[in-house]
Amino acid sequence: MKNLLFLSLMVHALVASVFSVKCYSCSSTNRTCEKVIEIECLGGQCFTASERFYNGVKTFELFLKGCACDELCGGQGRATGENIEYQFNGVCCTGDDCNIDEFRLPDNKIPNGLQCPTCYNNISTDECVSDMKVNCTGNQVLCYDYRASMQNPDGSVLQYSSKGCANKFVCDVNFDKHIGLIELYREHLNCTAPNPDPQ
Ligand SMILES: *[C@@H]1O[C@H](CO)[C@@H](O)[C@H](O)[C@H]1NC(C)=O
Ligand SMILES: *[C@@H]1O[C@H](CO)[C@@H](O)[C@H](O)[C@H]1NC(C)=O
Ligand SMILES: *[C@@H]1O[C@H](CO)[C@@H](O)[C@H](O)[C@H]1NC(C)=O
Ligand SMILES: *[C@@H]1O[C@H](CO)[C@@H](O)[C@H](O)[C@H]1NC(C)=O
């Protein structure tokens, strides 16, 4: 029994030494990310993440370093609609103190020929409706329809209803893996291919 315990402790120590790394850790609303400390990450990967959200009135930014969140590794997200610009970038790396990357946000604004219906409402999660369209850019190949109550990084809460262009990553992570924004309640999310528009 004692030997078994010893063995299991040995295995734990071994696993910990193989899969844990030291990572820089900080969180800031600007790129300085001051007060960098080191933390132990059991997943074995470190993380550098950048997020920007503009809602037509305010820009919220959050930059952080720490332990990797697997789902966000290598993820570059962009969604664009009336009054909305969302950008996310997640970089993961392996090795002690490897997360020294600068903070970057994906910003390919070159139109790709696709268009999506777009509208915006910040007082209700009822579907917004409009005849307007927005030009999709970069790798935005999907149209989103998103309605949710969101807490902004400054603590304020808004009811959003928004339509526009999104890239696959934003839809794949299901719109709710933000680092600064918190979704409090979701009414609807749908990502669909743009309708071919004969014109
Ligand atoms: C950056 O943010 C920190 C808090 O996260 C703040 O103390 C500092 O003044 C900010 N620096 C600039 C240049 O805005
Ligand atoms: C809500 O959106 C309107 C424009 O549609 C804008 O004038 C107003 O400032 C926004 N409110 C907030 C809190 O963002
Ligand atoms: C969207 O793209 C079309 C061409 O595909 C262009 O005529 C139009 O000006 C663009 N609209 C905006 C708001 O950039
Ligand atoms: C998403 O939208 C498409 C096209 O409008 C529709 O066929 C599909 O049922 C919708 N899915 C959900 C889950 O609302």
TrEMBL record:
Domain (UPAR/Ly6) ranges: 21-99, 112-185
Keywords, sorted A to Z: Secreted, Signal
Keyword Mitochondrion included in the entry's annotation: no
Subcellular location: Secreted
Signal sequence, start to end: 1-20
GO cellular component, one term: extracellular region
Main localization category: secreted
Alphabetized SUPFAM superfamilies for the sequence: Snake toxin-like
A Pfam short name: UPAR_LY6
InterPro entries the record matches: CNF-like_PLA2_Inhibitor, LY6_UPA_recep-like, Snake_toxin-like_sf
Protein name in UniProt: UPAR/Ly6 domain-containing protein
Organism of origin: Engystomops pustulosus (Tungara frog)
